[in-house]
């Protein structure tokens, strides 16, 4: 980081940054990583203690690298983090820490729990803990004392819920990835978050079935596995964005993930790793699309399958519907990761039933369907398909 000065015509230093309005300076400081934030203290006497009241603190990989040459780096940077936190004399609204991936840099559970306890007394609003080492460690128990949280992100931890937990009554955004839940932990956590607007539970384990009900949830991201199932068969009246990644073979056997009557307000739908080689899967996805009558954007990626011999419309597959049931749909992305029997049939249905469609993109991976004649044939098939929207642009791409 350079000095924030220029010289005037007399050779004197002019402090341009210090002349900025206070709210602009606060915005600049808020976006600096912790090492650059502390370095601002050497700029001038005015800046010496300015960093200790910045409401956002982030420790990422570059911070840990500063200690690589020490015999015991973990002990030293743990001490520094403790010192930075305890010197802070204002509110800490956001705390972001990426735990280092190297075991040599490993932060102890005791240190992490102590920092979180300190933050809970600062009425922290935003916490993100990313365990880059990917070896599951215990969730700091003091996290559940941070009752003012509005945003909470946790990656690669084991989670249990203490009996004293009274809920995150202000929490709006909850992101959980690669979490191993103790028995009943997830079931205890979710009811304690009555204001959730955004929920992401991906690649987690330790639960069997969750019946999710929320009158406030607008965005949901889940991974569907054979042994861990979400059922959305209760009240989700305002859900607008739904992202589903399949870790099982097919979506259709888990049909209760989509209560079709609850999709009326859905604006965005993403389905990842769908097996479009299966007729049942195709028909079920079509039924979902028909139920989501206000859908604006649809993104689907096909399952990794090598079974199909070609990418072309299946002439035996008729996906009839008497009306333009997708009247609000404007943008569609179909990512074909392998040759998929019914991908083109789905494209044909969407083009014929989407009266407001602006773009439909079929994306093929590099190295597949590379024969120019085959690509030309696919392009001709797309051009010949019936279109409900004369504005629809159809594109076949790689990548």
Q: Main attributes?
A:
two-stranded antiparallel ribbon; 399 residues; 14-stranded parallel sheet; alpha/beta; 24% strand; elongated
Average pLDDT, all residues: 80
Instruction: Estimate the helix proportion, in percent.
Output: 10-25%
The shape is elongated
Structural class: alpha/beta
Largest sheet: 14 strands, parallel
By DSSP (H or I, 4+ residues per run), the number of helices equals 9
Strand content: 15-25%
> How many β-strands, per DSSP?
18
Organism: Pisum sativum (Garden pea)
Protein name: F-box domain-containing protein
What does this structure look like?
This protein is of the alpha/beta class. It is built from 9 helices and 18 strands. The chain has a domain at 1-54. Helices cover 23% and strands 24% of the residues. The strands form 3 sheets. Strands 3, 4, 5, 6, 7, 8, 9, 11, 13, 14, 15, 16, 17 and 18 form a 14-stranded parallel beta sheet that branches. Strands 1-2 form a two-stranded antiparallel ribbon. A two-stranded parallel sheet has the order 10-12. β8 (173-181), α6 (185-189) and β9 (198-202) form a beta-alpha-beta unit. The longest helix has 15 residues, at 73-87. 29% of the residues are buried. Mean pLDDT is 80; it is low at 305-310.
């Amino acid at each position: 980081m350079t000095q924030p000065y220029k010289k005037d015509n007399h050779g004197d230093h002019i402090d341009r940054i210090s002349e900025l309005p206070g709210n602009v300076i606060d915005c600049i400081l808020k976006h600096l990583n912790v090492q650059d934030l502390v370095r601002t203290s050497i700029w001038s006497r005015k800046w010496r203690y300015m960093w200790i009241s910045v409401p956002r603190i982030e420790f990422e990989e570059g911070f840990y690298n500063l200690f690589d040459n020490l015999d015991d780096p973990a002990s030293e940077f743990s001490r520094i983090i403790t010192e930075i936190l305890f010197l802070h004399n204002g509110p800490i609204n956001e705390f972001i820490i990426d735990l280092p991936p190297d075991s040599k840099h490993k932060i102890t559970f005791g240190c992490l729990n102590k920092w979180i306890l300190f933050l809970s007394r600062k009425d922290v609003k935003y916490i993100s803990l990313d365990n880059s080492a990917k070896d599951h460690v215990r969730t700091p128990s003091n996290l559940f004392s941070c009752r003012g949280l509005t945003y909470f992100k946790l990656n690669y931890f084991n989670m249990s819920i203490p009996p004293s937990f009274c809920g995150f009554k202000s929490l709006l955004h909850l992101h959980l990835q690669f979490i191993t839940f103790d028995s009943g932990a997830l079931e205890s956590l979710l009811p304690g978050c009555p204001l959730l607007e955004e929920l992401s539970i991906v690649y987690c384990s330790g639960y069997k079935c969750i019946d999710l009900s929320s009158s406030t949830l607008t965005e949901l991201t889940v991974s569907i596995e054979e042994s861990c199932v979400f059922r959305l068969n209760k009240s989700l009246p305002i859900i607008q964005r739904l992202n589903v990644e399949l870790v099982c073979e097919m979506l259709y056997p888990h049909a209760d993930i989509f209560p079709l009557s609850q999709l009326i307000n859905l604006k965005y739908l993403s389905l990842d790793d769908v097996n479009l080689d299966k007729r049942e899967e195709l028909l079920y996805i079509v039924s979902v699309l028909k139920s989501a009558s206000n859908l604006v954007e649809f993104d689907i990626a096909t399952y990794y399958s090598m079974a199909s011999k070609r990418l072309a419309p299946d002439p035996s597959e008729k996906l009839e519907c008497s009306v333009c049931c997708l009247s609000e749909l404007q943008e569609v992305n179909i990512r074909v990761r392998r040759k998929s029997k019914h991908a083109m049939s789905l494209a044909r249905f969407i083009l014929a039933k989407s009266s407001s469609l602006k773009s439909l993109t079929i994306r093929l991976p590099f190295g597949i369907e590379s024969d120019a004649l085959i690509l030309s044939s696919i392009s001709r098939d797309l051009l010949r398909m019936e279109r409900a929207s004369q504005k629809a642009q159809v594109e076949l791409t790689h990548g």
